[in-house]
Specification:
The chain is α+β, with helices and mostly antiparallel strands. About 35% of the residues lie in helices and about 15% in strands. The chain has a single domain, classed as Double-stranded beta-helix (4-Layer Sandwich), CATH 3.60.130.30. α1 runs antiparallel to α5 and α7 crosses α9.
């Protein structure tokens, strides 16, 4: 692509297209860790969940406290005779919340991920898989310990402590006043706000120039058009907020999810079951030209930053559609699942445990808030604070990197439109069946091939990521 080319919007008979544009000066990670090692480490954690986590595998149904973020709509059969479906109301307590392998390793906060525990199994009224791989679990435990030690050495051994005498890996909600959670407060505590050019795409890279994400404002030369698009999707989301039904458990964000998920209707991929009040609004959103254009732009940014990862994910998604009849929320999209988060979202460090760990997750923020002080996103592993002007889109591997949002003020409004590739749905495509069926009837050759493939998955994913030199930078 020659220098000076402008990104512009075009239409075809099937979808919206965008042309490539020069990138601005990259954002370099403030920490010394290697993203390649982070991918390998995350793969070991995913293998652990694939082997012994019945909720993650889809063998049993998750309680609503075990969400990819904090509260999805897991519908339960009607028990009160009012001709609808019910949301579980069991209180979230330390006993009902799962203690994940990530929490045991001390890498994330308890609210950022929620794989299963026996209590979740009891809530779901099911039993864990009968076939337990004892030898594999012992071997996996050793791999996880080795990966943790290697990653700890990379992050802690090379990173210099700041003025507090400890590493600013995460800010505790209990230890800090609400004033800390503004851009100015975080800067005062030693964090760095990145300068993102509003009219260009900005890559996020590690210390080895591996492109880990991309941040972008409106398509170049299309500012007025993008403002109109943001107004349209904000109207749709505001109407869903007014007319829809969703849970908001105080510390948890109010979210409506649509597209493909796994396990609510048995161990298979399927479309999200919607509450009656939400179904009409979701249909309007999926048919909205504005949402289709935003989804197309998110796909464009994913493809631009990591074309090999994008091509691999698209192949699996096409197989999911052609062989299993599960379509994506928006046409010609690589993202299997979409979510809309209403109003404020809690500043809790999280990973999306349902997302494919090596694929990009896309987030577009819109609303009416003071983006210079509030509403930004924090990438904890890189020590980045990235301001999110209304209309900004960021793509990055949300299943591997910990992040959180800076809350907006009470009088402000923010909506988050998020899309990702559902890990269990794509794993169903790769294995040809669910985990339980694969464990029960897979041949020795199939098992050996799968074990070899997933053991190398982190390394394979790392090779698919682009280097900064592979992209056009102005």
């Amino acid at each position: 692509m020659p220098p000076g080319v402008m990104l512009h919007r075009g239409r075809s008979s099937s979808h919206f297209t965008f042309n490539r544009q020069p990138l601005s000066t990259p954002i370099h990670s403030q920490t010394a860790y290697s993203f390649v090692d982070a991918l390998e480490f995350e793969n070991q954690l995913v293998i652990h969940r694939e082997d012994g986590d019945p909720v993650y595998r889809g063998d049993i149904r998750a309680h609503e406290s075990c969400a990819p973020y904090l509260v999805p709509l897991h519908l339960q059969p009607d028990v009160d005779g009012d001709d609808d479906t019910d949301i579980p109301t069991r209180p979230v307590t330390p006993e009902t919340r799962s203690s994940s392998i990530l929490e045991e390793l001390g890498l994330i906060s308890p609210l950022s991920s929620c794989p299963p525990s026996p209590t979740v199994t009891e809530i779901a009224g099911a039993s864990p898989p009968a076939r337990a791989k004892r030898e594999a679990e012992a071997e996996l435990a050793a791999k996880v310990a080795a990966a943790k030690k290697r990653l700890t050495n990379l992050v802690v051994g090379r990173q210099k402590p700041r003025h507090s005498g400890r590493l600013h890996r995460e800010v505790s909600l209990q230890e800090n006043s609400p004033g800390v959670y503004t851009t100015a407060g975080l800067v005062a505590s030693g964090h760095t706000v990145e300068d993102v050019h509003p009219e260009s795409l900005t890559p996020i890279v590690d210390n080895q120039d591996c492109v880990m994400g991309l941040v972008g404002g409106p398509p170049k030369g299309q500012d007025k058009w993008w403002v109109y698009v943001m107004k349209q999707i904000q109207k749709n989301m505001a109407r869903l907020y007014r007319n829809g039904e969703f849970s908001n458990l105080g510390h948890q964000e109010a979210t409506v999810r649509f597209g493909a998920i796994f396990g609510d209707l048995g161990p298979k991929p399927h479309r999200v079951l919607q509450k009656r009040a939400n179904a009409t609004e979701i249909r309007l959103i999926e048919r909205s030209p504005a949402f289709q254009e935003v989804s197309a732009y998110q796909n464009f940014m994913f493809d631009y930053a990591a074309p090999k990862v994008y091509a691999h994910a698209r192949t699996l998604v096409e197989q999911l559609r052609m062989c299993h009849g599960i379509s994506t929320p928006f046409a010609n999209s690589v993202f299997t699942t979409s979510e809309i988060a209403f109003c404020d979202v809690p500043n809790v460090s999280r990973k999306n445990w349902e997302a494919t760990f090596y694929a990009f997750e896309a987030i577009t923020s819109c609303g009416d808030y003071d983006w210079k002080e509030r509403g930004g996103i924090i990438l904890w592993d890189d020590d980045h604070i990235i301001p999110l002007r209304p209309g900004t889109t960021i793509v990055f591997p949300g299943g591997t990197k910990r992040y959180s949002f800076i809350p907006v003020a009470a009088h402000e409004t923010r909506y988050i439109f998020r899309q990702y590739c559902h890990a269990s749905a794509l794993r169903f495509v790769e294995k040809g069946r669910c985990d339980a069926d694969f464990d029960a009837d897979a041949s020795d050759g199939e098992v050996e091939a799968w074990e070899t493939k997933r053991t190398r998955r982190g390394t394979t994913a790392a090779r698919m990521y682009s280097k900064l030199r592979d992209l056009f930078v102005c």
